Structures are given as structure tokens and as C-alpha cells.
Amino acid sequence: MKMNKISTMLAVSLSFCITTVFAADSGVDHSKMDHSQMQTTDTADVDHGNMDHSGMMNHANMQMAPAGIMKSHNHKKGGFMFSYGFMSMGMEGIKNGTDKASTQDVLADSYSMAPSEMSMKMHMLGAMYGMTDDLTLAVMTGYASKEMTMLMPMMMAMMEHDGESSGITDTEVSIVDGLNRYGLDNLVISYGFSLPTGSIDETYDGKKLGYPMQLGSGTFDFVPSITYQQMFNDSWGYGVQGRATVRIGNNSADYRLGNEYEASTWLTKGFGKRFSISAIIDVAYNDNISGADSDMMASMSPSKDPLAREATVITAGLSGRYNLGSGHNLLLRVDVPIYEDFTGYQLMTDYKLAVNYKKMF
Question: How far apart are CA 90 and CA 282, in angstroms?
Fold first, then answer.
């Protein structure tokens, strides 16, 4: 069942990418398009007759991707982009499988505590530099703050037990390949690694926090992605991206987080030169943990149980992009879950909110 979920998700994403590479270009006559109305990231109100194109993206790799879709474009040689992002996520309520569960259900299943709610806030910094016309170096890191409330029975009432963690997250270093040299103008791939700069030893009140409250994986992870984007006409475009996080070996605490697989597709509508709106569907699968941290007792709570981390989640999102001119862009995105299937007791996601600022030089 687990492999069927992964296979289905990846097959849909990759088959869509491959099909559109060979089919989509025939539907658009670029020679007759009004390029002045296209919703690009950085070219509004620019005099193209006098500008130096060496640092800009070419038309084929125009960035239509909404907030949260990373490594979706490459830069020309010498081009540079800086990005800052803020993400907030709230979780509350419990599910097991696709059914809601109560605190009493968790405690009756031999756990000492049950999760009640969790929040996470993350600041992300990124940079991209065009090493050649096809190859772009991308680096991204972040700072996360997490809070979780657990409920534990005490006499005739429930007592709240809070936990907090904060610090640097893992750091990704990737190469984004535009594939223009092969004539694949709208297809971009990336390949790189996530470096274990985030802590896996977070504690609160002298006790080690559960797996979701740790800040990193503790392992070197392979992080590939593939993205296809296409314009229908002057103001409509779409895209699809498949990405994965593949764990390599166990960390110093003798466990390995589950592999992650995610596919996204979006439809974008541009309004003039400066503003666009995108509708996004994300499908994400996260596997269970292999091994276990000896400092965590699985029976204490589901958050410390390595066999209660598998999840399949589908979310729907809406993203807006505003081109401020001179290479400045502001993006906003909101996501809500429309389907969740968990192995074990896990918190349900209420919402995700992301704000991004990007500047191309």
C-alpha cells in the first residue's frame, strides 16, 4: 500500500511533465504573442532595448511559479537573485488514518500523552547565481521556531505539557539545470543535497522533544526536482513540479527520517504586467522513520513513535504575485488541507501561510 501511494503520485507528476514537454509547444504561436503582457518575475516596466540581458532569465524559463515552488527556473550567466520567505503553519486536532480521533483514543492506545496543537514559524533565506547560461547554483537555509502542546491525564483532569524549539534548519545546496542546450526550453531539473545543519538534539525542561519538534534530519539528503512551465497565451500559464527528499544513511541518533515525495501543479492568470494569481494543488507523501532515537520512548506520545510518521496529504492553495518593478517581487500564498491519511495518531493541519520577497540583480 505504501509503495502504491508513492508510485501513483510520482507517475502522475512525471508523466504529465514528459507529455507536456513534447505536446505543449505546438499549441502556442510565440511569434504572434504580445510579450508585453506576460507575467514575468522581474521585467515589468523595463526598457528592453537598453538593458543588459546577461543577468536575466530567458523567455523559455520565465518564472511563473507561485510562492513555495522552489528551484523552478535558472538564470543567465552572472545573474543573481536573493529571496526571503516567511512561513507560518498551525495544526490542531488528531487523525488516525482518515478518521478523526480524540485524546481518549490516543491514551487508550497505551500512550502516556496525546498531542493537542502545534505551530511552526520559519524564516528562509535563499540565493541563486547563474554560473553558466544553463546552470544555476541555488542555496537555501532557514530559522524555525516550533511550539507543541501535549495533554497528559492527571488525577481527574488533563494537564497541558508544552514544548518549544528554535534554531537553524538544514541547508540545501543545489544545481538548477535549464536544459536549454538540449532544446528543452520549458523544462528545468535540479539536483543537490540537504546538509544536516539543523539540530536533532532539541530538549525542553530536560527532556528530549519528539521527532516533529527537531530542527533537522541529521543526515545528508538527496533533493532532486523536475519542473515544467508553459504559457497558454498572453496571460494564462500553468506548471507542474515533482520533487523528493531521499535520506542517506542514519544520523548520529541512529535513525533516519522517512523519504519525502511531493508533486505540485498550478494554473496562473496574469492581470497586466504586474499582478498574477495562481491556484495550486499539492500532493505530499512522507514515509515512516527507520530506526529510533534511544532518548525517546515511543510509548510516551505519538510524536516520539517512529512508526507513527507516515502521511499522505493533499492541499489546495491560492498564491498572488505583485511585481514591484526593478527586479522586486512580493508573493503571498495560503494553503488548506483537503485530504489527510495518517499512519498512527498525528495532528491535522489547519493552514499554511507563506510570504516571499524576491530581488533579481
Answer: 17
252-278 burial, b at 16+ Cβ within 10 Å, e below that, comes to ebebbbbbbbbbbbbbbebeebeebeb
Query: Residue 58 is part of a domain; what is its CATH number?
Result: 2.40.160.40
Distance CA 93, CA 160 (A): 15
Grid cell, residue 96, equals: 488516525
**Residue 8 confidence (pLDDT) above 80:** no
All 3 cell numbers of residue 320? 498572488
The pLDDT tens digits of the residues spanning 141-167 come to: 999 999 999 999 987 788 999 999 999
The label of the residue with cell 500553468 reads: 238
> Burial, 156: exposed, middle or buried (Cβ in 10 Å; 0-12, 13-18, 19+)?
exposed
* Residue 316 vs residues 224, 228, 245, 351: alpha-carbon distances, Å: 23, 19, 21, 10
- Please check whether residue 190 is in contact with residue 208, taking contact to mean a CB–CB distance below 8 angstroms: no
Residue span of the structural domain in which 202 resides? 2-360
- Global confidence as pTM: 0.82
* Count of the separate structural domains present in the chain: 1
pLDDT over threshold 70, residue 33: no
Q: How many other CB atoms sit within 10 Å of the CB of residue 207?
A: 14
Confidence of residue 55 (pLDDT cuts 50, 70, 90): very low
* Range 104-108, long-range pairs (CB < 8 A, 24+ positions): 105/345, 106/301, 106/302, 106/345, 107/153
Q: What is the pLDDT of residue 15?
A: 46
- The DSSP code for 71 is S
Sequence-distant (6+) residues with CB within 8 A of 325 are 44, 45, 274
